[in-house]
Amino acid sequence: MPHTPAPDASDVPDLPELPDAPEIRIDVPGSFPRAVFRERHPVLIGQVLDALPYGPRQRAALTELLARSTGGGVLEPPDADTPDGARWRAWGAGQWGRRWDEAPFLWAESWFYRLLLEATGWFRPGAWQGVDPFAPFKAAELAGPAVDAELAALEAESGRDALLSAALWGNRADLSFRLTAPDGSAESGLVADDSARLWAVLERGRGGRVGVVADNAGRELLPDLVLIDHLLTTGLAGQAVLYVKPHPYFLSDATTADTLAALTRLRTAPGKAAAAIGERLWRAMGEGTLTVRTHPFFCAPLPYDAMPADLRAELAGATLTVLKGDLNYRRLVGDRHWPPTTPFAALTGYFPTPVAALRTLKSDVAVGLAPDTVSRLDATGTPWRTSGRHALIQVHG
Ligand SMILES: O=P(O)(O)OC[C@H]1O[C@](O)(CO)[C@@H](O)[C@@H]1O
């Protein structure tokens, strides 16, 4: 389906005709998506098998998933009696019966995580129902020294741009990305910076509702929560809604349980400032000024321009919706080989509210970049789109 802006993009003046950009696929030898399936997923499945004492049935199911998804297996629709079976049958229309490597990258990756969860017994009545296979990794990260240091840093006064930057670069902490990315690949800067516009949109809607579509738990969610506290305490937001995944997804994606763990980590931090933030957010939840919400579509294999009417209505009315991370970005602009200078506004005009993307670059898709930025990045000869060393703040609204 070609990605076209919805009619309400008409408030965006002088936008060029969108190019016909091909979908990003996994069947291209040497490509990043292929490496995700062939290199990251085997490491991931190995780590999941090591982390919890799954029985023979689950171990066999996980091993089979890996073999089928990397070895040309055919995509089979879910049983209709699984809780999300009907939904997935519809989301996968056009894909069932094809080979794994014929499916678009976004779709295939999403289905892989859905099957991984099923293989562990998440959905079925039994002892493993509802046990997050990624919990050991999330818990280790949350308890680790990097979080101690990041919480200690909150004791020093920080300006709002520092808080925004922490939430942005927190996205580098994604555990799935670190499965094969070289350690110590230092941050190297913003390739697009609409932060002034972000604050202006928030000022314009001062006191309104701000939505934050979360990405990863732990080291990303903590600075997201700190930013939300800033918006609430300064009155830039009168109300905040944190949207999380309805179930574990893409390894470290945040659920409600992860949010509660992060809040507890803040509240019990040794530093006064961090603990006070945790306390305020805890209270804000009780008072309804901070709400945690979810929707099945947050785990859908589709771009956000296909969001259902109830989610659209749910998001509508916010002064700004902040989308965190790489996967949300792919879904926001469409997971396609866009020319990187394609205007961000041209691809996001359909979104029901003003929208901000805070993302480190960890996959091929990139839009809204200035031509000289693209030339500079290309001239480095490095995989700048996927290395996680670059980040962007883009705003439309
Ligand atoms: O946590 P984030 O920022 O959404 O990143 C997830 C990214 O990691 C990958 O799954 C690769 O490991 C990308 O395909 C995906 O977009």
From TrEMBL:
Record carries keyword NAD: no
PANTHER family attached to this UniProt entry: DAMAGE-CONTROL PHOSPHATASE ARMT1
Cofactor dependence: Mn(2+)
Family affiliation: Belongs to the damage-control phosphatase family. Sugar phosphate phosphatase III subfamily.
Protein name: Damage-control phosphatase ARMT1 family protein
Residue ranges annotated for the Damage-control phosphatase ARMT1-like metal-binding domain, each copy included: 37-373
Domain of life: Bacteria
Chain segments carrying region Disordered: 1-20
Coiled-coil features, chain-numbered ranges: none
Catalysed reaction equations from the record: beta-D-fructose 6-phosphate = dihydroxyacetone + D-glyceraldehyde 3-phosphate; beta-D-fructose 1-phosphate + H2O = D-fructose + phosphate
Entry-linked InterPro entries: ARMT-1-like_metal-bd_sf, ARMT1, ARMT1-like_metal-bd
Record flagged with keyword Hydrolase: yes
Database matches in Pfam families: ARMT1-like_dom
Keyword vocabulary terms for this entry: Hydrolase, Manganese, Metal-binding
